[in-house]
Every structure is written in structure tokens, then in C-alpha cells.
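Morning F.,

Quick status update on the modeling queue. The single chain you submitted on Monday has been processed. Sequence for confirmation:
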Amino acid sequence: MEINGVPLHPLVVHAAVVFTPLAALCGIGYVVPAWRDRLRWPLVVLALVAVVAVWVAYFSGQSLRTDRFAGATGEFADRLDTHQTWGTRLRGGATAFAALALITVWLHDRTGPARVALVLVTALAALLTLVLVVLTGDAGAQATWG
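C-alpha cells below.
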């Protein structure tokens, strides 16, 4: 998984680090009733792009770990393990958030307590995804530069 000899993972990670927080912020902003109409399509598009970027980053990271860092030991291996653990959590969180965002937008015209609950759960998933992307990125930076 390389492009011009550069591992795909550091290239794709930038997409995940940009689009995931943008999608999460749209998900949080969707709570505001006056913003819902304006945010529903950006939320869907950003959530889909983000989840694809996160999954590609995850698989390219697995490949990078296997191909280049299979023999890593000591503190560096521990930092890679930590990053990998957070990456796995982010993959699940981003997938759940994207699914909730799609369902929420699909049911955009609904009213009542079901809609309020769905919007709040989506916003909480967005917040969790935002936290996970920060923790995963920090663990990756620590593994690379720490």
C-alpha cells in the first residue's frame, strides 16, 4: 500500500483527520433546529467521506505495521499498539456515527420525541467520534515523533 514509494497510511490519515472532525462538528451543530436544513447534506457527505477515510487509514495502518514495523520492539512497539488500539476504536465510532447521521437525515422530517432522541444520540456519537479522532491522532503522533 504505497504511492510513489510513500506508504499510503500517512497520506490517508490527513483525510481522516480533516473530514472526521468536520463531520462531527456538523453532527453536533445538527442539534440546533435552525441549522438542521442547512447541515443535513454536508453532514451526510462529510460523514461518508470521513468513515471511508478512517477505514482506509485503518487498513493502510495495518499494512504498514505488518510490512515495515513487524519487528518493532520496546517502547516504540508499545506506542504503535496504543495507536492501533485507538484506531480500532475510532473505526467503530466513526462507523456508528456515520450510520446514525444517515438515519437521522433520512428521518429529517420526523417530529416529536423520537426525532429529538435520534438527534441527541447522533450528536453524542459525533462528540465521541471527535474525541476518538483526537486520541487516535495523538497516539499516532506519539508513535511517530515521541
